[in-house]
Design goal:
71% helix; disordered C terminus; 237 residues; two-stranded antiparallel sheet; 9 helices; mainly alpha; disordered N terminus
Length: 237
């Protein structure tokens, strides 16, 4: 009888241990499932971009916005210098400057005085210069820091500022600032710049083909200058 009681107590103890272990396992599974759902929901709500966008690790991405602006300004200066040289050498039917003495210092200073004391005017430039050329120019300004990982708002302000600098400082000694250019360069430049930026990110998803490299050099040269075509790391949001 004593032997039976001992076996009975041993059996009960074994069952209690098994039940406790099973209970702990079940509790852990439930706790894990409860924790997973909030984390998943939180990570979904905190996504910075839609899942269909892919972003390479941009050059200069982890630096301050001031470093991005400084580097972007260097890119913009080079672009504007090349564009200014082109306009100086271009015939009058493109620039519409139409003055034989336009490069004389007193004339340039007089025009600067007019630029900063009188209102902008509607120009009569060729349509593709006003609406295609200036949109492309604005997109270059925008992507000069957007392709370094700057935010849309920061890139937009940078594009707006550079557009005014072009009209008042770069061209201000040659002609009166243009109303069309002051609107088209930043507004259409920001739209075109972001579209080309997104297109570049989509193409970077699986690496760049030869055709895509040529296309990016045309539609988004700032990205090629900043990052080249080596996608260091793909981040899925």
């Amino acid at each position: 009888m004593r032997f039976v009681l001992i076996l009975f107590f041993i059996g009960c103890s074994f069952l209690l241990v098994q039940a406790q272990t099973q209970s702990e396992v079940s509790a852990k599974i439930i706790a894990d499932s409860l924790q997973t759902k909030p984390d998943t929901l939180k990570s979904f709500l905190l996504k910075k971009e839609q899942p269909l966008f892919y972003s390479p690790q941009f050059h200069n991405q982890n630096t301050t916005i001031f470093s991005k602006i400084l580097l972007g300004t260097g890119y913009v200066f080079s672009y504007n210098a090349c564009m200014g040289l082109f306009l100086v050498l271009a015939p009058d039917n493109i620039t519409m400057w139409g003055r034989d003495d336009k490069f004389k210092l007193p004339v340039i200073l007089s025009q600067y005085q007019s630029t900063f004391t009188k209102s902008p005017v509607f120009d009569h430039d060729l349509w593709y210069i006003n609406y295609v050329g200036h949109s492309y120019q604005g997109a270059y300004y925008y992507n000069s820091i957007r392709s370094q990982g700057a935010a849309v708002f920061q890139s937009s302000l940078f594009c707006l500022g550079q557009s005014f600098l072009w009209e008042y400082l770069w061209e201000g000694g040659m002609e009166q600032p243009s109303i069309q250019d002051l609107i088209v360069t930043p507004v259409f430049g920001i739209l075109l710049g972001e579209l080309s930026h997104v297109a570049t990110l989509r193409m970077s998803k699986d690496g760049f083909t030869g055709f895509e490299k040529v296309l990016i050099c045309i539609i988004n040269p700032s990205f090629a200058i900043n990052n080249g075509f080596k996608v260091k790391r793909i981040i899925k949001y």
